[in-house]
Amino acid sequence: MLKVEGISAHYGKIQALDKVSIEVEEGEIVTLIGANGAGKTTLLMSICGDPRVSEGSIHYLNQDITQQPTSKIMRSGISIVPEGRRIFARLTVEENLHMGGFFTEPRTFDERLNFVYQLFPRLKEREKQRGGTMSGGEQQMLAIARALMSQPKLLFLDEPSLGLAPIVIQQIFSIIQRLRDEGVTIFLVEQNANQALRLADRGYVLENGRVVLQDVGSKLLTNNDVIKAYLGG
Ligand code: ATP
């Protein structure tokens, strides 16, 4: 479904990605783990068209999207839940969801709204509340719901568990699993390696802009290097 081959990306003189290759098959949950500054967000943003990659290629559903504008990539069925949620704080829950469904056809809009409200009943209860006044966990739910409004085939989640209480993290991870069961392919970027790898069909480890390990999720969980570096010893 997604094939990233040997991409490099720079911010001025800083090289953030160095010949990174990853693949995501339809129906999978693929997890990318890595420390702060490893290049995880840069990889997601590069797939979405920004920053432009300096070498390599990105194919999505057999189309070359390497040089495509972000708006076109977003309309092709990829949706992103950005790091830090980035909800519209002054807009209500309902208005945030309308923003997410901006390109959704009017005849499927209500269906999508019902779908996300059924997935997150808390958001339905709070549809008139301003996004910025909600708790961190509720804001994360809203960010996921907003991304789902465009009916993505492939969903990118950038550190969805960051800063959340363990019980809320459990809820978020079980929603991710449910989305996969409903047919959404997931590319999950996480520092919470333990839980993210448990959920994953396959995983990649990114260090200093390079993929240093890749395997099925269960094997990475028992890999000594992964245990030492990402699973607390
Ligand atoms: P984190 O887990 O802390 O979010 P990350 O793995 O997502 O980290 P990136 O945010 O992709 O890492 O950063 C990779 C490298 O690129 C870092 O060295 C970072 O300082 C640099 N970088 C990221 N964004 C920019 C930017 N807009 N301008 C300059 N350098 C940047």
TrEMBL record:
> By its UniProt entry, which InterPro entries does this protein fall under?
AAA+_ATPase, ABC_branched_ATPase_LivF/BraG, ABC_transporter-like_ATP-bd, ABC_transporter-like_CS, BCAA_Transport_ATP-bd_LivF, P-loop_NTPase
Q: Name one GO biological process term.
A: amino acid transmembrane transport
Query: What SMART domains does the annotation carry?
Result: AAA
Q: What UniProt keywords apply to this chain's record, in alphabetical order? A: Amino-acid transport, ATP-binding, Nucleotide-binding, Transport
* One example GO MF annotation: ATP binding
Q: Which Gene3D superfamilies match?
A: P-loop containing nucleotide triphosphate hydrolases (3.40.50.300)
ABC transporter domain ranges (all copies): 2-233
Q: Which family does it belong to?
A: Belongs to the ABC transporter superfamily.
Q: What is this protein called?
A: High-affinity branched-chain amino acid transport ATP-binding protein
From what organism does this protein derive?
A: Spartinivicinus marinus
